[in-house]
Every structure is written in C-alpha cells, then in structure tokens.
Amino acid sequence: MDASQPLLFLDPGVGGLSILAPVQELLPNAPIVYAMDQAGYPYGQKTEAELTGRVPALLGRLMEHVDARLIVIACNTASVIALDPVRQALDIPIVGTVPAIKPAAALSKSRVFGVLGTRATVRQPYVDNLSREFAGDCTVIRHGSHELVMLAERKLRGEQTAIADYAAILDGLFSQPRGEEIDTIVLACTHFPLVETELAEAAGRPIAFVHGGEGIARRVAQLTEGQPWPDAPPPGRAIFISDGSDTTPLKPGLERYGITEFEAL
Ligand code: DGL
C-alpha cells in the first residue's frame, strides 16, 4: 500500500460531498478523488437495469485511471441498486451508502418516520428489507423527490433557493396518512444533508434528520486502519464524467471541500 493511493468517491452530482466531509474529518490526510458522473445524472430517474449496467463499468474505468485503495459509492441510489454487481466486478473494498433506517428507528419516539430519497431509491425492496429488519414496530412513510436533488445542486453552485420549495417537498411526506406524526426523517439521498438547514426551516416543527455520513466515515477508517497516509492533506481531485456542461460554477463549492484539481474523463 502506497500512502498516495486515494479514496475514490462516486456520485452523479454534488451529493457525495455530504459523505466526503465526515470522512475528511476522521482521515484528514487521506488523498481524495471525487468522481462526478454528470453524464449519468440523475441516477434517481434511471431504471435498475441502467444503473446495474452503468455503475460497475464506470468504476472499472475509473480504477484504471486512479489506483484507489477503497471506493465509497457516495450515493444511495447507486448503492441500493448496484452494490452487489460492483463488488462482484472489483476486487477492492467497496463501501456503499444505504438509507439510515436503523438509526431512525432507534431515534423516533412517535414510531412514525419518513424516508426521503430519490424515486429510484424509495421503490427498492432494499428499503422494505431494512424497514422489516430494523423498524418492524414503526410506520415508515416514503417519498421520492428529484426536485430536492436539483435544489441541492443549485445551492452548491451558489444559487438562491426558496424555503417554500423545500416545504412543498416535505409535504410529500407530511400529507400521507399519519404524516403529521412524523418526528424523524431519513435523508436517503446524499444530496439531501447538503440542504438540511433549509429542510429544518421548511418543516416548521422539530424534526430529527438522520443520514449515514458519520457511520460511513467510521467504516472507511476501520477498513483502512494501519495503512500509510501522506503527512499533510494533499489537494483533492475531482474527475468529471462530462455531459459537456460548464463546470466553472461548481468549482468554488468543491474547493470548500479541499478539491482544487479538476479533470474530465
Ligand atoms: N445523490 C444520489 C443519491 O444519494 C442521487 C442523485 C441523483 O438522482 O442523481 O441517491
């Protein structure tokens, strides 16, 4: 193991930054490659077949380019749909991001909680299984929203977003039967913790928001324990799997996460 071998993060957009941040807190000197699959965005609007084809192939291509020591699939949609095929295709540790249903069930006092994800994530049997296993005594209310992904993308580019837009999305949970009893919401898309402050304001009542970032960071630290790291944080590197759009508006937001080198693949 060479100290310069990076951790490779993958998300179709800026969402993976909500996973990158807690990893950087635990492993400040870890070399980071943040791969943004803009050509495949949005994953949440894709079919299962499209994602099980795309994600393992893309990660294989990225691994030929960057010799990562570990991959973090920093996207719930890709993880709940394509984690198994990725693990079959690649022979390095793969950490996925799955909806934080277990912590939500531990936290909810009303025993009614929401799962807010992409449309592709909330329809997965994976979510049924987690709910059955860890939240058997809870009512789990789901809502899939691509609009919230877009709001997070806009926020990272420094654009204004309106609280009313967040409120309308939360209504997708609150307006369902027993929705008024929700006291906890799982942010089951990595874009959503980036707009947690706006969601909290839009909710208009106290809601606990939970997501997997800290747990993933602990898992990455555990899997890399004893491995060498550089003596100081190296510059983070973004790889855009380009859809041809201008990446300039993204750069200041990425720089806040120490990502200062940019390339297109
Ligand atoms: N950030 C991704 C997730 O966690 C999805 C965003 C998208 O729809 O592309 O599910």
UniProtKB/TrEMBL annotation:
<feature type="active site" description="Proton donor/acceptor">
    <location>
        <position position="189"/>
    </location>
</feature>
<dbReference type="Pfam" id="PF01177">
    <property type="entry name" value="Asp_Glu_race"/>
</dbReference>
<feature type="binding site">
    <location>
        <begin position="43"/>
        <end position="44"/>
    </location>
    <ligand>
        <name>substrate</name>
    </ligand>
</feature>
<feature type="binding site">
    <location>
        <begin position="190"/>
        <end position="191"/>
    </location>
    <ligand>
        <name>substrate</name>
    </ligand>
</feature>
<comment type="similarity">
    <text>Belongs to the aspartate/glutamate racemases family.</text>
</comment>
<dbReference type="InterPro" id="IPR004391">
    <property type="entry name" value="Glu_race"/>
</dbReference>
<dbReference type="GO" id="GO:0071555">
    <property type="term" value="P:cell wall organization"/>
</dbReference>
<dbReference type="InterPro" id="IPR015942">
    <property type="entry name" value="Asp/Glu/hydantoin_racemase"/>
</dbReference>
<dbReference type="GO" id="GO:0008881">
    <property type="term" value="F:glutamate racemase activity"/>
</dbReference>
<protein>
    <recommendedName>
        <fullName>Glutamate racemase</fullName>
        <ecNumber>5.1.1.3</ecNumber>
    </recommendedName>
</protein>
<feature type="binding site">
    <location>
        <begin position="76"/>
        <end position="77"/>
    </location>
    <ligand>
        <name>substrate</name>
    </ligand>
</feature>
<dbReference type="GO" id="GO:0008360">
    <property type="term" value="P:regulation of cell shape"/>
</dbReference>
<keyword id="KW-0573">Peptidoglycan synthesis</keyword>
<keyword id="KW-0133">Cell shape</keyword>
<dbReference type="InterPro" id="IPR001920">
    <property type="entry name" value="Asp/Glu_race"/>
</dbReference>
<keyword id="KW-0961">Cell wall biogenesis/degradation</keyword>
<keyword id="KW-0413">Isomerase</keyword>
<dbReference type="InterPro" id="IPR033134">
    <property type="entry name" value="Asp/Glu_racemase_AS_2"/>
</dbReference>
<feature type="active site" description="Proton donor/acceptor">
    <location>
        <position position="75"/>
    </location>
</feature>
<dbReference type="InterPro" id="IPR018187">
    <property type="entry name" value="Asp/Glu_racemase_AS_1"/>
</dbReference>
<dbReference type="GO" id="GO:0009252">
    <property type="term" value="P:peptidoglycan biosynthetic process"/>
</dbReference>
<comment type="pathway">
    <text>Cell wall biogenesis; peptidoglycan biosynthesis.</text>
</comment>
<comment type="function">
    <text>Provides the (R)-glutamate required for cell wall biosynthesis.</text>
</comment>
